[in-house]
What we know:
The protein has 333 residues and is α/β, with parallel strands linked by helices. The chain has two domains: 5-104, no CATH class; 126-322, Rossmann fold (3-Layer(aba) Sandwich). 44% of the residues lie in helices and 12% in strands. It contains 15 helices and nine strands. The protein has helices at 5-14, 19-22, 31-43, 56-63, 67-77, 80-92, 107-113, 145-160, 173-183, 196-199, 203-210, 228-240, 255-267, 282-288, 307-314; strands spanning 96-99, 120-125, 134-138, 164-167, 188-191, 214-218, 244-247, 272-275, 293-296. A nine-stranded mixed sheet has the order 1-2-6-5-4-3-7-8-9, sandwiched between helices. Strand 3, helix 8 and strand 4 form a beta-alpha-beta unit. It starts with a helix and ends in a 19-residue tail after the last helix.
Amino acid sequence: xxxxxxxxxxxxxxxxxxxxxxxxxxxxxxxxxxxxxxxxxxxxxxxxxxxxxxxxxxxxxxxxxxxxxxxxxxxxxxxxxxxxxxxxxxxxxxxxxxxxxxxxxxxxxxxxxxxxxxxxxxxxxxxxxxxxxxxxxxxxxxxxxxxxxxxxxxxxxxxxxxxxxxxxxxxxxxxxxxxxxxxxxxxxxxxxxxxxxxxxxxxxxxxxxxxxxxxxxxxxxxxxxxxxxxxxxxxxxxxxxxxxxxxxxxxxxxxxxxxxxxxxxxxxxxxxxxxxxxxxxxxxxxxxxxxxxxxxxxxxxxxxxxxxxxxxxxxxxxxxxxxxxxxxxxxxx
Length: 333
C-alpha cells in the first residue's frame, strides 16, 4: 500500500509503531496535540510532508514552536528507517494504515468528531464498507436472555436489509451482534480497543475479511493490550461511524455503555434508539426519559418495511444535522 509524504509524516508524528525499537523516550503526538500542530501548519499553507524538507529555524519561525517542540518533531521524523521496517511487517500481516491526509479516511470521523478524530487509524479488511449505511449496536458485557434475543433479532434484521453492523468488538452485546452478522453473510465494521492483531487471528474474523464482509479498525497500536482509556476513546469512534445507534442494555450512571450514550447525547453525533421492554436496566429507563432518545421495541421486527427506512422515518427532523460532509485535513469547524 502506497503511503504519501503527508501520511508518512503523520504516521511518524502520531503513531507509536516504532516507539519500542527507537528507545529514545520521545512520545508521539496525542489527538489534541496533533490538532493544534495541524492548525499551525494549515495557517502557514504547509502540509505535514513539508516538515521533511524545511529547516529547524523555519519550523520555529513559521509555526511558533519552542525548541523542545522542534526537537520532538525532529526526533519523531528521524525514526523513518525503523518505522518503515515496522510498517512493512505490519502490512505483511494484512494490517494497513490510514491518516487524516488519506482520501479513504472515514469522512464521518472528521465531520462528526472534528478535533477528536484520530490522526492515524490501523485497519484490516474492506474499506468500501465505509460507504454503506450502518447501525451501531451497543450494550453491557453481561446481558440477560431478553437482551440477548433482542440483539440477535435486531442484528439479523439490519443484516437482511443491507446495513452494516458496527460495534466495539467487546464481549456481550458487541460480540453477539457481530456473530449474527457473520453467520447471516452480513457486513460488519468493528472498532477494537485492544490488539487488532489478535482480533484478525480468529477464524470467524479472517473468513469475514476474506469475503470482503468485514472491516476492522483501531486507533491504537495493533499489538496493544486492553486499556480502559482506549475503550472509552473507542466508543466515540463506534458512534461516529454509524447512521444510528441502538443501546440494548445500560447500567445507570456507570460503565462504558452509559458513558458512550451520554457523550453521544451531549455531542449529537448520531440519532439514538434505546431498547424498551417490561424489564430493562435502570440505564435504559433514564435514557428513554431524554427527549432526544427514540424507543425501540420488538414490535419493529414484525414489520415488513426496511429497518433502515424505519430508522430514517423516526429521525427525519434530525437527519440534516447528522449529514456527513467531506472535510479537508485541517477542516475542524
